Amino acid sequence: MLLKIENLHVSIKGKEILKGINLEVQRGEVHAIMGPNGTGKSTLASVVAGKEIFDVTQGNIIYKDKNLFDLSIEARAREGIFIGFQYPVEIPGVSITNFMRTALNEIRQYRGESPLNAIQFMKLMEEKKKVVELTQKLSERSVNEGFSGGEKKRNEIFQMAVLEPELAILDETDSGLDIDALRIVANGVNQLKTKENATIVITHYQRLLDYIVPDVVHVLFDGKIVKSGSKELALELEEKGYEWIKKEYENGRI
Known about the structure:
It contains 9 helices and 12 strands. The chain is an alpha/beta fold. The longest helix has 15 residues, at about 95-110. The two termini are about 25 Å apart.
């Protein structure tokens, strides 16, 4: 088991957002979490990442047999957790190259591996840029500074390609993307899938799942995972809408 979330309850400023999340993710799997706005999808990603604005009032998150709450944000990243947020931040004055080389070498040092020198890293970077069709001009700029929405998301998947995380959580990666950018980002995610890693894709819409085919689809509603199923569940949601889930939930049918 790579990730196990047990009865997770999370609040912010006294308001309960997650009301008993249970989720198990095995290596080699892709999970999709779908649901309307305000149901806790981004909160779940933030809690796994280690954002401290949330209060975990109950439950556990076990990652690689370790209690995630015992690990700092930095330790979680070094242990192979990657979070792609809906709104990636800009880091003016820090080049993508320097940022990624520092990040990768921190992880390598944590694993007891020797750091990559400049030549070794540039060779790796050129290889990984092909995954998301990242141009030379874009890779020479500061991290996300002045990037369009599509460029920011493409840069995130490039970072994922370089760091090779064991668990990637992508929070609404499809937000604001046109069809071409969506295809490039999704193809990048698909290329990075292995038997040893896992990906959780958080999304509103089924369209992303035309490109990234999930093994399991979960519906998050009212702070709980109320329904899970195969990729066909996403198609059913597309057809019936989230109002269907609301009615089923309120009537006790799910």
